[in-house]
Amino acid sequence: MSNPQRSKNQLLDDNVQQGISTAYGVRYRSMQTQTVQDWVMDEHPVALVYNGLSHAVMMVTPTELENFAVGFSLSEGIINHRNELYDLEIVQNPAGTEVKMNISARAFTELKSKKRSLAGRTGCGLCGIESLEQFDVELPMISHSYEPDWLQLIPSALEKLPSHQPMTQTTGGAHAAAWITSKGDLLAVFEDVGRHNALDKLLGYLTLNQHDIQNGFVLMTSRASYELVRKCAKLDIALLASISAPTSFAITLAERSGLGLVSFCRGDGFVVYQTTDSQSSF
Asked: Residue 140: inside a domain, yes or no?
């Protein structure tokens, strides 16, 4: 646990402070007890509202909410392009936070036709759908292939990543999503209590800052579940790497969309789960 003598201000910058809270507990060690102060990740209800219609309530670490909302809107197919989002306002109220967005008439008409309203638990990608018919697994084909040399960048990216995870260092309770450029640079890292929230924050950042998403890949500190594959495919990202295991459905969707899926990225080892002949070795 964190040293109780250190204050939150000494540990974290202002933005990260918004995502953690103080907690107290009793530590047991060899049946000896000690009262401790620690920091824990915040879970906060965030409502995503489109043209006045509340579409989703997600449990999110309340940092980088503009990036999160933009990334969610794109990765969930609510808008097809950044230009379909006209404006965004973050409103705090006693019950939580609302992110109010105005989107194009086309996007809003399609959103209403889906009749989908989520009440998202942390890590939940299906909460709120009314039937199996609403379970959308149709994905676009990735328009480009990842370069085989990118696989060689994974070990060095893993070494760099911990120093860019202040929430994880402080609480031990955050997932991280990182963007690794085709030159091996760690461009950006976003943390959240939910793995796909962290990914949405990263995707929103990349979109708002117009970074080239055809020359790099996503590295996640979580397992590779289907919703992470789905979100990357929606934004035409060619490679997803994860520290932990993939799920069977994640592998299936990666194969369908042409996404490169690499998991068990630890040290200098990893497993490539979706390859083509040109990518089977490096």
From this structure: no
- CA–CA separation, 253 and 247 (whole Å): 10
Q: Which residues are catalytic?
A: 124
Tokens coding 109: 């008409």
Residue 280 reports pLDDT greater than 70: no
Q: Name the phi and psi angles at 97, rounded to 5.
A: -125, 135
Helix (H) or strand (E) holding 145: none
H/E element, 58 = strand 53-60
* Per-residue pLDDT band at 150 (split at 50, 70, 90): very high
Structure tokens at 226: 């289907």
> Same domain, yes or no, for 54 and 74?
yes
Q: pLDDT exceeding 90 applies to what percent of the chain? A: 67
> What pLDDT score does 4 carry?
37
DSSP letter at 151? G
207 and 156 within one domain? yes
Is the domain of 110 the same as that of 165?
Answer: no
Give the DSSP H/E element, type plus range, for residue 105: helix 105-114
Q: Are 260 and 254 within 8 A, CB to CB?
A: yes
Residue 170 shares a structural domain with residue 187: yes
Q: Is residue 3 part of a domain?
A: no
Q: Which DSSP letter does residue 64 get?
A: S
- Same domain assignment for residues 159 and 83: no
Closest CA to 238 of 191, 278, 209: 278
Cα separation of 113 and 109, whole Å? 6
Q: Which residue has the higher pLDDT, 7 or 97?
A: 97
In a domain, 12, yes or no: yes
Pairing of strands 44-50, 53-60: antiparallel
- Map residue 212 onto helix, strand or coil: coil
In-domain check, residue 123: yes
Distance of CA 200 to the CA centre of its chain: 4
